Amino acid sequence: MRIVKINAVWCPACIVSNKIWKNVLVDYPDLDIEELDLDFDSDEVKKYNVGDILPVVIFLNDEKEVFRLIGEKTKEEIYKAVEEYR
C-alpha cells in the first residue's frame, strides 16, 4: 500500500489535514506516504488527474488506485480510510 498526498502551500485545508497526517504517521509508522505539491510537482501530479479541490489523498495498491479522499476531512474520516485501505 502506498499513499500519495497532494497539497499546496496556499491551501488552508491542506494545512489542517497535514496536522492530522502527522499523527497518522506516528500511529502507523509503516505507511509509505509520498507528498506532492500541486504547484512544485505539477508534472508528477498531472498523472493523478487531480481536480480543483485540495487536498487529495490517493490510496494505491500495486500502483492501482483503490480509494481517494478529496477535500478537508475529519480525523475520524482519515483514520477510517487508513484502517480500511492500508
Feature tags:
3 helices, alpha+beta
Outline the secondary-structure elements.
Elements: E1 2-7, H1 12-27, E2 32-37, H2 42-46, E3 56-61, E4 64-70, H3 75-85
Parallel strand pairs: 1-2
Antiparallel strand pairs: 1-3, 3-4
Helix pairs in contact: 1-3
What report would you give on this structure?
This protein starts with a strand and ends with a helix. 37% of the residues lie in helices and 29% in strands. The chain contains three helices and four strands. Strand 3 and strand 4 form a beta hairpin. With 86 residues, it is an alpha+beta fold.
- Main-sheet strand order equals 2-1-3-4
Overall mean pLDDT: 96
What does the overall shape look like? globular
What kind of sheet is the major sheet? 4 strands, mixed
Strand/helix succession: EHEHEEH
* Count of beta strands: 4
- What level of helicity do the residues show? 25-40%
Class per helix and strand makeup: alpha+beta
